[in-house]
Design goal:
Blueprint lengths: L2 E17 L18 E14 L5 E6 L4 H14 L5 E6 L8 H8 L4 E5 L10 H13 L7 H17 L10 H30 L2
Parallel strand pairs: 1-4, 4-5
Antiparallel strand pairs: 1-2, 2-3
């Protein structure tokens, strides 16, 4: 009852892209059209912490993506989060998250508890689902002639999201998800075995 869970990650190297031709809007009988070539105007990185219960997002934008910037973001989480609650951080094993600087930061704050997602299991972290929303609804559709314009658009999206946040809910239980993964792994192994047998027979080995 006295704990909060944050799903934390970075969306790094977000490009400020300007289409070479104006977007042609949706019309009756005509889909929206856009050019596939563009001009690059720099990049930014978004650090985000999704509150698992409320879906509100704490965020910070940086032009660089190092443990120094990540520590600054942890300071922001600490400042904006509930002051007397235990804080559980769900994040991946990326090197930026495990440097001596970051380990010292957590060691000095016993109310913070870190939970790493498995290798290749970043999809478990719900902030990735929120990143997909940001990409599909703002970044991919936008025209940004500078990094400053891009960052302003990202902040606008976050502010709108936080006004009426809707928590993400898993459509299946953990057991159902794990069972589905197990079935996929079995099919993959079976297909690889058939290919190996076929190659062995074909070469006469």
């Amino acid at each position: 009852d006295h704990a909060v869970v944050f799903c934390v990650d970075e969306k790094s190297q977000i490009q400020a892209l300007d289409r070479t031709q104006p977007l042609l809007p949706l019309r009756a009988g005509q889909a929206e059209r856009r050019t596939h070539d563009y001009e690059r105007h720099g990049t930014t990185s978004l650090f985000a912490a999704l509150n698992l219960k409320t879906s509100r997002v704490i965020s910070q934008l940086h032009r660089r993506h190092r443990s120094v910037e990540f520590r600054k973001f942890l300071d922001t989480i600490e400042a904006e989060g509930p002051p007397h609650f235990d804080v559980h951080i769900i994040m991946d094993n990326y090197g930026t998250h495990k440097t001596p600087l970051i380990r010292r930061w957590f060691a000095k704050r016993p109310r913070f508890h870190v939970h790493y997602t498995p290798t290749y299991g970043s999809w478990i972290n719900l902030v990735e689902r929120w990143f997909a929303e940001l990409t599909n609804k703002q970044i991919r559709r936008g025209v940004h002639r500078s990094v400053r314009e891009l960052e302003a658009a990202i902040r606008e999206f976050i502010a709108a999201h936080n006004e009426t946040p809707k928590p993400f809910v898993w459509a299946k239980t953990a057991d159902q998800i794990l069972a589905s993964i197990a079935r996929y792994a079995q099919r993959t192994l079976a297909a690889q075995s058939r290919q190996l047998i076929s190659r062995t027979i074909g070469t006469g080995a």
